[in-house]
Amino acid sequence: NGKGLTKTEQQHVFEAFGRGDTSSDGSGLGLFIVCQLVKKMGGSLSYETSKLGGACFVVSFPMEVAEQAQAQAQAQAQAQAQAQDILSGLNILLAEDDSFLAQLTQKMLSAKGANVTVAENGQIALDAFQTHQAFDVVITDLMMPELDGHGLVKAIRESNTQIPVIAVTAAVIGQETDQLMAEGATAVLSKPIKVDELAEVLNNRQAQTA
Predict the structure, then answer these.
(1) 207 pLDDT more than 70
(2) For labelling alongside 155, which of 3, 43, 120, 194 has CA 20 to 30 A away?
(3) Beta-strand pair 115-119/137-141
(4) Contact 32/23 with Cβ under 8 angstroms?
């Protein structure tokens, strides 16, 4: 509801340090910064005269941005639903010596319906595997006391079982990953583990063995 901008001022309103005919305090960077931010997000900023006669600034974004976000949300929801279907009822052996990560992973997998047994090192996990032999999936960290992830993967494969063994590491690309796959790991995922990635691995495994 102010005096608005003249035609000349409108041409320079989004330029840096463009303050027009004013004695008010300011650097003249406000609208310039806003305009740059809007452009980085794929939108546009324009000026028009308001119904009250003053200045009106309009921020616009193309519909495909919103549609893309909606598509991503739908894909995420589908991935979560798929994870629920695949993980529900599975008996999972988790070898993790970090108590925080162990609790976090157990809670995350349990929320999808899995039954999770936690072992604080590779040797305890191997003992549990050899004693019960009732696990559907083994997830193992690499750096653990007593027996590390490499040793656990090899020991499980020496029992001639085809149970999926998922190794979890901070680096999923490199010599360590190649070594784990050669030792018999079904897949190598980055930590902390994500349920949708785990579900995708198990889904692909089921398709290969079907």
Answers:
(1) no
(2) 194
(3) unpaired
(4) no
DSSP state of 193: P
* pLDDT score, position 88: 87
pLDDT tens-digit series, residues 56-81 = 889 998 876 667 777 777 877 776 66
Backbone φ, ψ for residue 47 (5° rounding):
-110, 140
Report d(CA 9, CA 26) in Å as an integer.
16
pTM: 0.62
Distance between CA atoms of 108 and 114, rounded to whole angstroms?
Answer: 9
Both tokens of 125, joined, read: 């996990």
Measuring CA to CA, which residue among 166, 136, 144, 172 is closest to residue 153? 166
| Bridge partners for 92 per DSSP | 116, 137
Structure tokens, 128: 């549990």
How far lies 180's CA from each of 39, 120, 124, 130, 158, in Å?
45, 20, 20, 21, 14
Residue whose tokens read 């063994």? 165
| 205 token code pair | 């495994």
What are 186-195's pLDDT values in tens digits?
Answer: 999 988 888 8
For tokens 């290969």, what's the residue?
208
Rounded Cα–Cα distance for residues 24 and 26 (Å):
6
Cβ atoms of 141 and 102 within 8 Å: the answer is: no
